[in-house]
Amino acid sequence: MTGPIPTGIFGGSFNPIHRAHIDLAETIVGQGWVKELWLMVTPHNPLKHSQDLWPDDLRLELARIATRHHAHIHVCDLEYHLPRPSYTFQTLTTLTRLHPDRRFHLVIGGDNWACFDRWKHWKEIIQRYPLIIYPRPDAPIDPATLPPGARLIDAPLHPISSTAIREALRRGEPVSQWLDCEVEQRIRAFLHEKHTGTIV
Q1: pLDDT given at position 195
Q2: Nearest of 51, 55, 27, 16 to residue 153 by alpha carbon
Q3: What distance in Å separates the CA atoms of residue 28 and residue 70, rounded to the nearest whole number?
Q4: Neighbour-count burial for 107-135, b at 16+ CB within 10 Å, e otherwise
């Protein structure tokens, strides 16, 4: 008899999704921490300003394009159907109720771990869901400070961010090295439509 399927939940705005997101997801699956990883595209992060977010449907579409060739990485839109703002505790408890055949692990970066005590019901999250923490630049982590069940993984650090990609696009600089080709095509179509006033 097999147990619940270990499934990672990697949430974010993915504004836009880029190669570092996919590389991280593949690393987590490849190292055996989970069998599948679900990218949870969030409509609004309570700890971030939302005015620079691209449209919800576009970010979701881009994530689906970027994961189309990755069998163990899936895109989840659950938070689009939950009350806003989106809180991770609510997301995880809803997933657990909807998918009793899975054991969910929460994937977060070192920067989020540094402010984890600001998250809603953070103690309950630690008690109920194993944490998979990946390194981020300028966010060092002392493994001795991690709670039981949390894992600090060995993952590559990429000198790129969604913010930097958006800024490069505004300046007309190349971004192909960080984006799936079809993702970039869709982004450029969106930006052109936005600039010309054409309906997306």
Answers
A1: 79
A2: 27
A3: 13
A4: bbbbebbeebeebeeeeebbeebbbbbbb
CB burial of residue 153 (10 Å; 0-12, 13-18, 19+) = middle
- Element containing residue 58 per DSSP (H, E): helix 56-66
Q: Which of the residues in the chain have pLDDT under 70?
A: 1, 45-51, 198-200
Tokens for 61, please give them: 């579409």
Question: Cβ atoms within 10 A of the Cβ of 166, count?
Answer: 17
Residue with tokens 């990883």: 37
Which residues have a Cβ under 8 Å from the Cβ of 183 and sit 6 or more positions away?
Answer: 16, 17, 18, 62, 65, 66
Residue 62: name the closest of 82, 81, 41 by CA.
41
The class (CATH top level) of 5-158 is alpha beta
pLDDT score recorded for residue 47: 60
Q: What is the pTM of this model?
A: 0.92
Each residue of 71-124: pLDDT tens digit? 999 999 999 999 888 899 999 999 999 999 999 999 999 999 999 999 999 999
Domain spans in the chain, listed from the N-terminal domain onward: 5-158
At position 103, the amino acid (one-letter code) is: R
